[in-house]
Automatic annotation (TrEMBL):
Leader peptide range in chain numbering: none
Broad EC category: hydrolase
SUPFAM superfamilies: Leukotriene A4 hydrolase N-terminal domain, Metalloproteases ('zincins'), catalytic domain
GO MF entry, a single one: alanyl aminopeptidase activity
Superkingdom, natural source: Bacteria
EC numbers: 3.4.11.2
Native source organism of the sequence: Brachybacterium paraconglomeratum
The Aminopeptidase N-like N-terminal domain, residue ranges: 24-192
Name of the protein in its database record: Aminopeptidase N
Family (UniProt): Belongs to the peptidase M1 family.
GO biological process, one term: proteolysis
Necessary cofactors: Zn(2+)
Length: 454
């Protein structure tokens, strides 16, 4: 990948350019599954933030045939994953960049995070781009804090279903290809953009406030989707009651024919392997986990990768809330169980700044969830869920930091929470649950009484 750029996220120093932002991506793509050939034209509507002699785009493993700036050819270079446009740019300037490119896409690889991005399956494609895989299929400003709207069209063999992280505008067949057109009108960071291609059948799920669907491979029916995927409408409605309105027009779960080690969310879409059809709690909790990311991670997104706990801690806590909703367990029981497990592990992780090596460590997920429960115990159930809903509502479509959450929680609760956040987020030592002070007795009346079904 490219060398470190000024202003780039220190967790991913070879990605992104802080000197400009992209407001809109328009991607016109054609893909041949049989040969893994992708050809595309990407049009980026940008705004420049500072005077500079070059803008950097991220594009990995594909060949650039032409680059235009405001409709005219522009001098450029493309080495590794760094596509550099060389011109005189001024602060406040609006610029339209058009890149024509093609080749055989492959995942972006790194020592710390492994391969991410465009990946061939046995019969189709999966794109799981977190944290740095977006440049494997389109030129972009690969920063989590640079959110844009998208228009994506992709032409492929008519035998395949194409799913994209957006709303389907339509599809049309011409010759031996069908073009699928999608829009994403809610600002989205590059790593949450996805394309999924496979021989899928759409299965709608009833009972939710927005359309919920699963895309399934051949031979998968309603029986195989139970209990986990069939309960997605219930999960969505629970999270809506707790967190506020679902932030997108619909939700899609793609279940690939292949097995996947872990599922992954994209905006308004999550991807699972056939192994996640298992009728067990492990699969069900992951389905709830990925769905909750639509609030925590997608609607409201970290500004810096060091704040990943703001996604994963909330998603893990959502698993425990779902367990309590279904009567499998209680949040208190889950808290004690996971705290005991963490106490047996090394205490060398700072939740608020884990470092790139540990940003996806499971200890961060669990300790982030424990921090939220400590906050809930301190301020009480009603205040806790109220401040979570206002956190999401006030930052919808935006980017956030740990400091912003700490300030919001203190302001909304009217309490000084410095000691609580210091212990759970900024110290390596795992706090003892019983040592956490409680300024008022939480209600613990249960989710059903606090937030009854409408």
């Amino acid at each position: 990948m490219s060398i470190t750029r000024p202003g780039s996220d220190p967790y991913l120093p070879g990605h992104g350019d802080a000197s400009y932002s992209v407001r809109r991506y328009a991607l016109d793509l054609a893909y041949k599954v049989e040969t893994n050939r992708l050809d595309g034209t990407a049009t980026l509507s940008c705004q420049v933030h500072e005077d500079t002699g070059a803008l950097h785009l991220d594009l990995y493993g594909l060949q650039v045939s032409s680059v235009k700036l405001d409709g005219k050819p522009v001098k450029h270079s493309h080495h590794g994953g760094d596509l550099t446009l060389k011109s005189s740019f001024t602060a406040g300037q609006e610029a339209t960049i058009e890149v024509r490119y093609g080749g055989k896409p492959r995942p972006v690889r790194s020592r710390l995070h492994g391969p991410t991005g465009w990946e061939e399956l046995e019969d189709g494609v999966i794109v799981a781009a977190q944290p740095h895989g977006a440049p494997s299929w389109f030129p972009c400003n690969d920063r989590p804090d640079d959110k844009a709207v998208y228009e994506i069209s992709l032409a492929a063999n008519p035998a395949y279903h194409v799913a994209v992280s957006g709303e389907l505008e339509g599809k049309r067949r011409k010759g031996n290809a069908t073009t699928w057109s999608y829009r994403q009108d809610v600002p989205m960071p590059t790593y949450l953009a996805t394309v999924q291609i496979g021989r899928y059948t759409e299965v709608p799920h009833r009972g939710a406030s927005v359309p919920v669907r699963s895309l399934v491979p051949a031979g998968v029916g309603a029986k195989e989707l139970a209990p986990g995927f069939a309960r997605q409408p219930e999960m969505l409605e629970l999270f809506t009651r707790l967190y506020g309105p679902y932030p997108f027009p619909s939700y899609t779960a793609v279940i690939t024919e292949d097995e996947l080690e872990i599922p992954l969310e994209s905006q308004a879409l999550s991807t699972f392997g056939r192994n996640h059809l298992a009728e067990d709690w492990e699969a069900e909790r992951l389905i709830a986990h990925e769905l909750s990311h639509q609030w925590f991670g997608n609607a409201v997104t970290l500004e810096r990768w060091q704040d990943i706990w703001l996604h994963e801690g909330f998603a893990c806590y959502s698993e425990w809330l779902w367990a309590e909703e279904t009567g499998r367990s209680t949040v208190e029981e889950e808290t004690r169980r996971h705290h005991a497990a963490l106490a047996e592990l090394p205490e060398d992780l700072l939740v608020a700044d884990p470092g790139p090596e540990l940003m996806f460590d499971d200890r961060l997920y669990k300790r982030g969830a424990l921090a939220l429960h400590a906050l809930r115990r301190r301020v009480g159930d009603e205040t806790f869920f109220s401040l979570i809903r206002s956190w999401l509502a006030q930052n919808l479509g935006g980017s956030v930091t740990t400091e912003m959450f700490e300030e919001h929680a203190a302001r909304e609760s009217g309490e000084d929470l410095t000691d609580l956040f210091a212990a759970w987020l900024h110290d390596e030592e795992l706090p003892d649950l019983t040592d956490q002070p409680v300024s008022r007795e939480p209600t613990h009346r249960g989710l059903r009484s606090l937030f009854p079904r409408s």
